[in-house]
């Protein structure tokens, strides 16, 4: 379902024959396309203005685990997509044509998540022990982090910080020199997170709690308490605003 954040109304819906997406996330490229992955080993490009499928990018031989997009510095024609499947194969796509541009094999391990570094278009891949940066050649950022299942990689809006969420925590790095800033651990599983500013993150924990985390001071502020009946699943920051959209079972909540 596609929502207008100003009117809080659903503008369109996209329905597939399958009952669910393999990973219930989407990524905007420019203002026209949504990148999503499903349980058919494909990466999809969707025109959300029309509510229809534009391209199905085929090439993975196993279900897609993680997808990231680079917006081409606001030039949609230059946008690129990177994806990784459960077997660790990484692929590079042009979302404007639906064609694979590069089959990447720079990693000697199986990544569980991938992301584009926004400014330089570097690719970062991670699993439960390794974090590798690929900028023409593979550069190891960390090889002994020894954490649980890696769930998501995200960069701050100004690209100064990178955060990786794993089962029960988040590790944050400075991208200038790739020095680890802090490792934050939680009593419950991390279901989702996003940057709200250059130094602040919103984190969704299992059993519905949502908190704000300051990367500089490590201060935590509870935004949505865990005693709510409905469980929060994921959070996203609405660009150019101070609002968060929180997916809560069958609903979406907007928080200031």
Can you count the helices?
A: 0
The overall strand count is 25
Q: Which percent range fits the helix content?
A: under 10%
Strand fraction? over 45%
How far apart the termini lie comes to 22 Å
Based on helices, strands and strand pairing, what is the structural class?
Answer: mainly beta
- Tell me the Rg in angstroms: 18 Å
> What is the residue-mean pLDDT, rounded to a whole number?
77
**Which runs of at least 5 residues are low in confidence (pLDDT < 50)?**
18-25, 27-32
User: What is the global morphology?
Assistant: globular
Order of helices and strands: EEEEEEEEEEEEEEEEEEEEEEEEE
Strand order of the largest sheet: 3-4-5-6
Main sheet attributes: strand count, strand direction, barrel closure: 4 strands, antiparallel
Written overview of the protein:
The protein is mainly β and 256 residues long. Helices cover 0% and strands 52% of the residues. The strands form seven sheets. It has a four-stranded antiparallel β-sheet with strand order 3-4-5-6, with no helix packed on it. The chain has a four-stranded antiparallel β-sheet with strand order 7-8-9-10, with no helix packed on it. It is globular, with a radius of gyration of 18 Å. The chain starts with a strand and ends with a strand. 34% of the residues are buried.
């Amino acid at each position: 379902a596609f929502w207008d954040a100003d009117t809080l109304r659903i503008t369109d819906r996209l329905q597939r024959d399958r009952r669910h997406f393999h990973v219930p996330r989407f990524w905007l490229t420019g203002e026209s396309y949504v990148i999503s992955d499903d349980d058919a080993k494909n990466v999809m490009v969707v025109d959300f203005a029309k509510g229809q499928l534009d391209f199905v990018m085929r090439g993975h031989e196993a279900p897609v685990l993680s997808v990231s997009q680079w917006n081409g510095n606001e030039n949609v024609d230059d946008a690129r997509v990177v994806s990784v499947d459960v077997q660790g194969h990484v692929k590079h796509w042009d979302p404007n044509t639906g064609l694979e541009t590069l089959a990447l094999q720079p990693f000697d391990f199986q990544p569980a998540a991938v992301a584009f570094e926004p400014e330089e278009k570097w690719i970062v891949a991670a699993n439960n022990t390794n974090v590798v940066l690929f900028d023409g050649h593979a550069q190891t950022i960390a090889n002994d982090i020894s954490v649980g299942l890696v769930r998501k990689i995200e960069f701050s809006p100004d690209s100064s910080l990178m955060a990786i969420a794993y089962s029960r925590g988040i590790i944050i790095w400075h991208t200038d020199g790739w020095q680890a800033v802090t490792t934050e651990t939680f009593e419950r599983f991390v279901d989702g997170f996003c940057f709200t500013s250059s130094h602040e993150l919103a984190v969704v924990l299992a059993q519905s709690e949502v908190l704000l985390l300051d990367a500089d001071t490590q201060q935590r502020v509870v935004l949505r308490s865990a005693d709510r009946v409905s469980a929060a699943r994921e959070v996203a920051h609405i660009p150019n605003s101070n609002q968060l959209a929180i997916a809560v079972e069958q609903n979406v909540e907007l928080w200031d």
